[in-house]
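pasting for the record
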Amino acid sequence: MMSWGNAATDVAGGRGPGEWLRRQRQARAWSRPEMARQLIKAAKARDDASMPGIDNICRWERGTVGLTERYKLYYCVAFGISADEFGVGQSERTRYLPAFSPGELAVLDLVTGIVGLWRDFRREMTISRNAGGGDGIAGIEVAAHDRSS
């Protein structure tokens, strides 16, 4: 069984698992926030309340922190692959070929982040309105202040 610790060359082609994870995420045009949402969805499907953050995904992709078996499984679920396919090089697995240039992927990351912020804003507006706050913007500012205290 392969160890997913801080191994630099466990993945085909001499690249670390972090680079493989990043390439798989980008091949699907997913931002890091979207990758986190997909991992959380996979965890919830198995009654796991794990909440990986973007910082975890960044560290896993950089290879500064090893990936646990639990999150390896969640990545497999999110990517729709078997555990045997995890870490297989692009040349060995051509099902997900990148369709975007690095610049296009950067723009997609930015747009996805903005959409996520918009959804958060809309959710806060709805919560504020449902709580009886007349002014939605003022309610959000109060709610944000209450959470930071």
